[in-house]
Amino acid sequence: LELKPKCIVRAHGRRYTLEMQTPICLTSKHRTRTSGRLNVMAQSIISKEELLENAYEIAEEGGISALSIRGLATKSGVSVGTVYRFFAAKDELTIATIELYFARAFYKEFCHLDTHTAFVDYCEKMDVSMHQVFNHFRKYWLTGAGGPPSPPSLL
Fold this sequence. Notes:
This protein is an alpha+beta fold. 48% of the residues lie in helices and 14% in strands. The chain contains 5 helices and 3 strands. Strands 1-2-3 form a 3-stranded antiparallel β-sheet, with no helix packed on it. Strand 1 (6-12) and strand 2 form a beta hairpin.
């Protein structure tokens, strides 16, 4: 007589319970049933872009010092190892997040030329916008990080 264990998987939101049930042991005096349970995380499929977007939100809310691999994993609903597959170290994640900040800030302001605006006016607008972008970055993103020294005055 060959009896094989039975495997049952039950879903609980993003977590699954894997339950192994062995048949009744026919050789024991008490004929007891044994079973074991193992909780496993649902393997999430997430892209580097999605992780970076979540990292951006963390930094926008709490500054770049609030960004951590573990915090990003929690916010993204993935394991820490999943984050490390895309970003080998926190420095790499931090740099990518800051690059995203400046890419968005500068693209929004500078990559949409108005053909009716004079070049000098465009340059003045760019100067004002750059100051706003750097001030926002210094005020909100460098919270708790100490930040770089203030730039020297050009006047």
